Amino acid sequence: MKVLGIDPGLTRCGVGVVEGDVGRPMSLVHVDVVRTPPDLDVARRLAMLAEGIDAALIAHRPDAVAVERVFSQHNVRTVMGTAQASGVAMMLAARHGIGVHLHTPSEVKAAVTGSGRADKAQVTQMVTRILRLSAAPKPADAADALAIAICHVWRGGADRRLAEALARAGR
């Protein structure tokens, strides 16, 4: 299973692709951070994000796209930009006919570290271990995108296997 993970953001949008399956080693396929200058208007910044995400979708042809679910923060402006970036990612996946799955930050942290309250350093450390990387992915947006993809492989892969088993059983 190949999953494209998206850590949505208007200034920095993490894009990471991993390949693996439940109970099997995971491998890094691609990681990047799509950046947009804060002095551009929002529409142009969203277009730049779309170009970067679309390039990853075309180059890596994932089986699924996993996006971090936007959660409420104190800064409404930040939430809006994150939600807009998330919408761009979901729309592009839909255009390519790829299923989109949303995972909360605490769900991703729990899947990767065992604790839904893990900090960014712990998430980065575990992503580095899980993918057997010689160096930690940087910046944090890159590591977060990979964590989201890893979370989906493990959680989505388990759901997929259950569905396949039920289909074989005629349910």
What does this structure look like?
The mean pLDDT is 93. Helix content is 51%, strand content 19%. Strand 4, helix 2 and strand 5 form a beta-alpha-beta unit. It has 171 residues and is α/β, with parallel strands linked by helices. It is globular and about 55 Å long.
What topology emerges from the helices and strands here?
Layout: E1 2-7, E2 12-19, E3 27-35, H1 42-60, E4 64-68, H2 76-95, E5 99-103, H3 105-113, H4 120-130, H5 140-168
Parallel strand pairs: 1-4, 4-5
Antiparallel strand pairs: 1-2, 2-3
Helix pairs in contact: 1-2, 3-5, 4-5
Q: Summary?
A:
The chain has 171 residues and is α/β, with parallel strands linked by helices. Helices cover 51% and strands 19% of the residues.
The number of helical segments is 5
Q: What is the helix fraction of residues, given as a range?
A: 40-55%
* Poorly predicted parts: none
Strand fraction = 15-25%
Question: What is the highest CATH level, the class?
Answer: Alpha Beta
User: What does the main sheet amount to?
Assistant: 5 strands, mixed
First-to-last CA distance: 24 Å
**Derived structural class:** alpha/beta
Mean of the pLDDT scores? 93
Write out the CATH superfamily name. Ribonuclease H-like superfamily/Ribonuclease H
Q: What topology, given as strand order, has the largest sheet?
A: 3-2-1-4-5
Report the order of strands and helices.
EEEHEHEHHH
Q: Which fold does the CATH topology refer to?
A: Nucleotidyltransferase, domain 5
Q: Any idea what the shape is?
A: globular
Radius of gyration: 16 Å
User: How many β strands by DSSP?
Assistant: 5
Number of domains: 1
**CATH architectural group:** 2-Layer Sandwich
